[in-house]
Specification:
- The chain is built from eleven helices and 13 strands.
- By secondary structure, the protein is an alpha/beta fold.
- It folds into two domains: about 170 residues, Rossmann fold, CATH 3.40.50; about 140 residues, Glycogen Phosphorylase B (Rossmann fold, 3-Layer(aba) Sandwich), CATH 3.40.50.2000.
- The strands form two sheets. The chain has a seven-stranded parallel beta sheet, with helices on both faces.
- The longest helix is centred in the last third of the chain and has 15 residues.
- It is globular, with a radius of gyration of 20 Å.
- The two termini are about 15 Å apart.
- Keywords: Transferase.
- GO terms for molecular function: hexosyltransferase activity.
- It holds the Pfam family Glyco_tran_28_C.
- InterPro entries: Glyco_trans_28_C.
Length: about 325
């Protein structure tokens, strides 16, 4: 055995890569962990002791699929872990998975569209090609959650609660604000095309809440945003934990990280080809437009200001449960 785990984490945003790093950094303490991804964010962050094989987002569909296939077929590993897409993001895994029968194959089953499951006959495909399926904190109401080889864990988080930096220090040194005033954080972790929307949102929040510190967390500074309002920091959970209110999308990381650190999330449910943000947004304060967001943030700030909350978050990190299950 090579004592190597290979994690497939294709997808253009933060979510797939962040989940892979959350698991990989724990697994890498005892083995080699290689992550294959096409997320442009891979170029901007700490790889957490994992080896990251980056496929350029400019490569194009066919070239990306071909590189993935060649890399997987030519990499010796004793665990193959596929995030979200059983057949691969472009269907590129469909015919090579049967060739990898001797290698335990594990699917990370984040919520996906039932239409996608039906169209690609994924129930049968997963049953035939995966030894184990792990649901990383998304609950029972998932298209494949009733398969016999499914294991549920708590959400996967890239930091344990005891690893989070002090809230006041983050505000002072990363946010660069007075740590004693209410702080609103816009989490621009979605697609690059949504950055301009989050920039407008940030400026609206600053105008409506002059007594608050407003910051935007994004990989790149949006156009028309003063650089003083911009934060570029990974992992984002360290910043979310230091805010009083977070405003963002209803993606996997944003929802479960805010829930873990106990910070209210005001969320827009963005349309995705496979992910059901609208369903996940039912767990948070869902809004549909900027005026609703302003009103909801105002209501939350009124509640928060009544009680100063400096308590240290306490939560379970599901990556440890997953590590045990995958290793077995």
């Amino acid at each position: 055995m090579t004592n190597t785990w290979l994690i497939y984490a294709l997808g253009g945003g933060w979510g797939h890569l962040n989940r892979a790093l959350a698991l990989g950094r724990i697994a890498a303490k005892e083995r080699k962990v290689t992550i294959i991804t096409n997320s442009p964010y891979a170029l901007k962050i700490n790889h957490e002791n994992c080896i990251v094989n980056y496929i350029s987002e400019q490569a194009g569909f066919f070239a990306t699929c071909q590189q993935v296939r060649e890399f997987i077929l030519n990499t010796q590993c004793d665990r193959l872990i596929i995030d979200t897409f059983p057949r691969g993001l472009g269907g590129e895994l469909a015919d090579i998975l049967p060739q990898l029968q001797p290698i335990p194959r594990i699917l990370i089953h984040r919520d996906i569209s039932p239409d996608y499951v039906t169209a690609k006959n994924l129930r049968s495909f997963v049953a035939q090609n995966y030894d184990k399926v792990i649901v990383p904190g998304e609950g029972q109401d998932l298209p494949l959650a009733d398969l016999p080889n499914v294991q549920h864990t708590a959400p996967w988080l890239i930091r344990n609660c005891e690893e989070l930096p002090d809230k006041m220090s983050v505000r002072s040194h990363i946010f660069k604000v007075n740590p004693d005033i209410p702080t609103i954080l816009v989490c621009a972790a979605g697609n690059a095309s949504e950055l301009s929307f989050f920039a407008r949102l940030t400026l609206h929040l600053q105008q409506n809440f002059p007594h608050c510190a407003v910051r935007i967390l994004a990989a790149n500074c949006p156009t028309d945003i003063p650089e003083a309002l911009w934060i570029s920091h990974h992992p984002g959970i360290e910043c979310l934990a230091a805010a009083d209110v977070v405003v963002g999308g209803a993606g996997y990381n944003t929802v479960y990280e805010c829930a873990a650190v106990g910070v209210p999330l005001v969320a827009f449910a963005f349309k995705r080809l496979y992910d059901r943000q609208a369903k996940r947004a039912n767990q948070v304060y869902r809004v549909k437009n900027l005026p609703q967001a302003i009103t909801t943030v105002s209501t939350l700030l009124d509640r928060i200001e009544l009680v100063e909350n400096l308590s240290i978050p306490s939560y379970i990190n599901g990556t440890f449960q997953a590590l045990h299950y995958i290793s077995a």
